[in-house]
Amino acid sequence: MDRLPGEARGFLLEGLLKTVLKSKNAAAVDQVYVRRFLSIAREGLLESSEGLEVLLYMALAMEKEKTLSLLSEKPEFKEIYGILSG
Amino acid sequence: MVRFGIEFVPRDVYWRTVYYTIEAEKAGFNYVWITDHYNNRNVYVTLTLIANYTDRIKLGPGVTNPYVCSPVFTATAVASLAEIAPGRVVCGIGAGDKVTLTMIGLTWRKPLAHVRECVQAIRALTAGEVLNLDGKAFKIEGARLNYKPPSEIPVYIGAQGPAMLRLAGEIGDGVLVNASHPKDLELAVSRIKEGVSRAGRSLEALDIGAYTSFSIAEDESKAVKAVIPVVAFIVGGSPDVVLERHGIDLEKANVIKDALTKAKFGKAFKNVTEDMVEAFSIAGTPKQCIDKIEEVLKTGVTQFVVGSPIGPNVLKAIKMIGEKIIPVF
């Protein structure tokens, strides 16, 4: 996550936020991640590596297929996609 | 200077409402109002979490009612909240919705007395006083909180009808008027002024909020599409006198009312016309919204509350309001 360039971070943040805010499977996410998400959002650091990681966990818990599909859209996410898609 | 408020209906999981509020605070909103309906997430649970994750935004129920929650319960709820968010808590009280109250086995009666006495009780209890109230709605003897909140809690009255608006002018720290059109707001402000003069108060002491149905997007048609369901429900609940004030065809309005009663929502939404959207919402591009807000503010409104649906995309709408609307005022 640390190696992602700025533009890719913005794209990923927007896509992950859209997923977690629209998903009908919100109950699938662990409250530990929800609390971290809210704390990081309060600090305005969602685009940081930690923020993106938390969002990624939340998105995967709620919408695994959609999240993997988002990660397959840009070559910058190849490494993350490879790890997560096993 | 005008204040900006935002209303959330906590029908979604709590953390999304909290997140939207975090973003609303960053966007420059001054107030967040959380609606209180038994079938949504609990208003005080939501507000407690909002208090924990925000720093400046003022927050409160917008509005609760004295039928479902006794004034004593509301007083201790807002007083507790004020310990978490000192100086930031406000409390909105309204007369509730007759249909919903009847559905849950409560009798909607003496709304003016209920609201008046509720305000009286909340003020006394949150000031640390012993409350003795021998009213028309409540009989309370010797009630007292075991603690005192660290700051005063302004009480806003949710009002629409003439008598409730006058009462709000008479005793409220603020008013929340459910209207979006300058015509309705002008009339409401004149009623509020009557109450203000009846009590010998200054109008400046009162924060007059327009609780609007609002929808913003770069594409006007998307903004309008998002507001149509809300407008349908407003038309469905509006008396003929209000519809006539806006020149709305009563027959068309009755089609919507009938469809809503039968839960035929598609039919109801399809029958919403342009003049209904114009009368009961503020919907459009940032420029169109700015023009309409300017008209609203000319009526004497001091707080502009962005209400449901906010926009076709809530997060984008909040950011758009922060970037393009709030700085203009």
Structural description of this entry:
The complex is a heterodimer of chains A (86) and B (329). Chain A is an all-alpha fold and 86 residues long. Chain A has one domain (6-76). Chain A has 5 helices and no strands. Chain A is globular and about 30 Å long. Chain A starts with 5 loop residues before the first helix and ends with a helix. Chain B is α/β, with parallel strands linked by helices. The model of chain B has no long low-confidence stretch (mean pLDDT 96). The longest helix of chain B has 18 residues, at 220-237. Chain B has helices spanning 14-27, 43-53, 71-84, 98-103, 111-126, 162-171, 182-198, 220-237, 240-245, 250-261, 265-270, 274-280, 286-297, 314-325, and strands at residues 3-8, 31-34, 58-61, 91-93, 131-134, 139-143, 155-159, 174-177, 207-216, 282-284, 303-310. Chain A binds chain B through residues 17, 21, 26-27, 34, 37-39, 41-42, 44, and chain B through 12-13, 15-16, 18-19, 22-23, 26, 49, 53-55, 314-315.
What can be said about this structure in brief?
Chain A is mainly α. Chain A contains 5 helices and no strands.
Task: Round the Cα radius of gyration of chain B to an integer and report it.
Answer: 19 Å
What is the CA–CA distance across the termini of chain B?
8 Å
- Look at the structure and give the mean pLDDT of chain A: 93
Share of residues in strands of chain A: under 5%
Oligomer: heterodimer
Shape of chain B: globular
The number of distinct helices of chain B, counting runs of at least 4 residues, comes to 14
Mean pLDDT of chain B: 96
Structural class of chain B: alpha/beta
Helix and strand string of chain A, N-terminal first?
Answer: HHHHH
Principal-axis shape of chain A equals globular
How far do the termini of chain A sit from each other? Answer: 17 Å
